[in-house]
Amino acid sequence: MKNKPVISIIIPCFNAEKYIKKCLDSILQSKYLNHEIILVDDNSNDKTKEILTKYKKSKKIKAFFLNKNSGPAKARNYGARKARGKYLLFLDIDTEIDEHCLKQVVEKFEQNKKLGAVQASLDTAGHFLTFFGFPYEVRSKQRLIFGARSAGMGIRKDLFEKIGGFDEDYFIYGEDTDLSWRVWLAGHEVHYLPEAKVYHFQKSSLNKKTGYRIFYEGAKNNTQNILKNAPATILLWMLPFHILAWLFLSLKLLGQKRGQHAISIWRGLGWNLKNLKKTLVKRKTIAGYTNPNNQCRQIMFGEINLKALFSKGWRWFWHV
């Protein structure tokens, strides 16, 4: 096992006291022993810090504590900087892994040098984009996917560093799509690994009680994804349709007398206008490591059809 590459499991934590033990127990039961666990507390206000402190003496587990709640992207990046593994596996704290999961992830990376990132088997099999620039999840056994979910995402550490890690301007939502997009642009592939099983227990849902933040972050981050990463020929038509879709949703929310939610969307779109110069600098940086032979255009929409476009692509809108 000493000759096997190290895989670093990085887990952001925020008010996660009821999940920590189950998550860690599942990892510690792994058949692949050459791993380390890095937990990053994002300034929790429950007993998370107290629980994590108990693991400080463990050789396998490292716990770090941030002084400000800055979102999972920053916590994951912090953990990645502390990692010594050749490969990184990002998990959410409300997950558990199968005992063979780590072995499957490492083996796939070792077998395929073009493989940049993987998604373990979660409640979905990854996602693609609609023509409007919104991610839609798939449940097929298709190996090649456009985007992996950060609740069970593996990536080569050197590639993660090369493409700049997670964008910390994303507090929540969309940061995994952004990272996956950049993996493809760098000339690598993203695969779904059904044999690497991760069990995700706390599934989020959208309903009329959903807070304003999801609308703000959704509009801000999905729009930023397109501005940063889309090839110019796709950007020119996708961005207008994307913005119109958000404006359409805001009108629907106004009709439901949910004005604050509509305002959150406008604020999210406005963030991109206010920070356009900063985003264009990011776009230039991405262009610097973009592989001209990348397969991003060929994979981003998947085997899209009218059902995917109008059913999967718009489902988010009809259920708010």
From TrEMBL:
* Residue intervals of the Glycosyltransferase 2-like domain: 8-162
What superkingdom heads the lineage? Bacteria
Q: Fetch the InterPro entries from UniProt.
A: Glyco_trans_2-like, Nucleotide-diphossugar_trans
Name of protein: Glycosyltransferase 2-like domain-containing protein
The residue ranges crossing the membrane are 234-254
Task: Name the UniProt key words of this record, in alphabetical order.
Answer: Glycosyltransferase, Membrane, Transferase, Transmembrane, Transmembrane helix
One molecular function GO term is: glycosyltransferase activity
Output the Pfam families linked to this UniProt entry: Glycos_transf_2
Family, similarity comment: Belongs to the glycosyltransferase 2 family.
Is Transmembrane helix a UniProt keyword of this protein? yes
